[in-house]
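Dear U.,

For the methods section draft, I wanted the exact inputs and outputs in one place so we can describe them consistently. I've listed the two proteins in the order they'll appear in the manuscript figures. Please don't edit the token lines directly; just add comments below if something needs changing.

First protein:
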Amino acid sequence: MIWVFVVPIALVLGYSLPDLTNLEVDGFMVFGLAVLMMMTPLLLKYHHPWLLLSWNMSAVIFFVPGRPYLWMAMTGISLVIGVLQRTLNPEKHFISAPSLTQPLIALALIVLIVAKLTGGLGMASIGSDVVGGKRYVWIWGAILGFFAISSREIPRDKAMLYVGLFFLGGVTMAIGNLFGVLSKGFTWLFLIFPAENVIDTESGDGMIIRSWALPFMSIAIYCAMMAKYGLRGCFDLRRPWRIVVLGSFLFIGMMGGFRTMVVILALTTGIMFYLEGLVRSRFFPAVILSLVLGGTMAAVFANHLPLSVQRSLAVLPLDIDPVVKLDAQASSEWRVQMWRNLLPEIPDHLILGKGYGVTATDINVMYQTIRTASRTAGAETVGDYHNGPLSVILPLGVPGALIFLWFAFASVRAMYLNYKNGAPEIALINRFLFAYYLARMIFFFAVFGSLYSDLAMFTGVLGLSVSLNGGIAKRARETAPEPVASTFKFNPGERRIVNA
């Protein structure tokens, strides 16, 4: 069997080798398929942990049109392998969670209907005049990813390993920031991990450098440490290295210049603080005192911090650089202005959403508008509303919004039940996953969100929880004690005392 596969693969690779040396796309596709065939035995055994590792990675398959993310390809591979294994072995079953699968299937169907009625799946990467179809693919990929991740139960003794793989894959986001730093010999690395777009804003004291990569890396480290140690464990004074590592990466994350990270981690930490019972513990006064002292120091030294860190802290009432404050206010104001412009459009898309398709004419008008007016018109045209509820109701209408609310309620309930009723050996993981998921859901509805880009985060964490718990955990039934007959009287549950 080895020769049956190896000889044809060797012939194909030998024929396509000249194209590979010239970096031809067709040659890379042949090479990729050949490598995929040779990796089949490893994929059959390790496709599930590899899927979890790739879920938060920034890696793309650069030789495929549209440059899909690696997690999308792993989702398809994992689902195919899961279905084949289920077909060959009836004892292998997908984990059943109908309260979650039903709204996800309904969401996939409503997205398909909207796409069909609003211009189809247009993609510029395949030569279509209508663009925006990639966002439909992201939504369907996120939904299929839930089924792939939750297709099998994670062994309890490997729970933390799989959770670490899931979150720490986000560290690869920082590779894109190394563009221009590494030597030319590593240029190929940025084909797999695209260079991150860095936003520069001039200030009187320097440049405000903003990059999404650093906050993503920081959140990945934070999540991995919280899942393993919990809030108490991370701030255990007997192990100060944990505080140092966590604080260092949080500071590095604030160097990205985005307020989003500060709000998400503050929400998650606050929920964790409550769930771990620290509000009623003797540590609560010490925490309040630490917050007061920390807030005082931040108020005094905030304007001496790097400009990017100051912008991350602009969400707090601190004395920061005036240019940084003005930049943060302008960012908030143009979003509010865009929402005001979009509100009158909602009644026109209550029944049928506008979808994600954008014609070439719309794009040309957008570029002309950006040159003559503000950037809000460009964001409105391409569907980047920077608002969770608007990102649902405008593209998908009221039917899509109701289905998403159904999914949001069912998913939060499932995460809560796994937190309350999950196995004791993974209680710490379940507590963090529930806190993080609830914080991200609150952030989506109240602060900032985008359906097509955030859905993968929701379904990924949700699928991980279902896979860890073997479904949605149920409360263990309490068995009533068996009645025991006494010598003098019959009392249910009373033990019989016999003198030796």
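Second protein (the one for the lower panel):
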Amino acid sequence: MTLPKLNTPEYELELPSTKETVKYRPYLVKEEKLLMIAMETGEEKDVINATIQAVDNCTFNKFKVDTMPSFDVEYLLLNIRAKSTGEVSELNVLCTDDYETYAPAKVDLKDVKVQYNDEHNKTIKLTDEIGVVMGYPSATSTFSSATGTEFAFALIRECIEQVYDKDSIYNKADMSEEEIDEFIDSMDTSMLEKVQSFFSTSPVLKHSIKVTNPKTKVECDIELRGLQSFFG
């Protein structure tokens, strides 16, 4: 016996990083189950892998999701979930006037976008003649056994795509990890701060809302930042 096939609607959106049009579908029971099982384990690695797999399935396996910028993956999953479970998310948010009272809020997920900082630049000039071109961290970059300073330097190493001087451009594929580490270690403090500013000003999924504290009646401005902020 052959059961009937269920039709699934398709939608389109523009990837924030490349402006490329992407086709996607809502997630199905198999993707929802995948995400729920991962969340039940409480392991960050499991959640990241399940997220990548779900987004890959829902974009018809057309992209290398594990290497996409993390904000692209978050934006895709936000829209996939919106089409799957509803475009309005009901939250309880912490009021910023007393930092102890929670207030209900509704967010229309169609209004949530990846926000850009005018000061952000992928090309960083370290000296008059030497600079680097950076790439964005992927979703898998956030999972690491390293912590603190070790993790920060590992992330810089991963995200350097090119080093250039007045004569040449050196691509990451042609560099060893040891060469990249030696290059990073040779930076002075001001150079390192320029590189770190690349991460602090990178595009981010965020949205601002206003809520009224039910206890104090004060209206608060709340910034929701990162995928988890948009789901109760």
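Candidate sentences for the figure legend, describing the second protein: The CA atoms of residues 30 and 159 lie 33 Å apart. The chain has three domains: 7-86, 89-112+205-232, 123-200.

Thanks,
Y.
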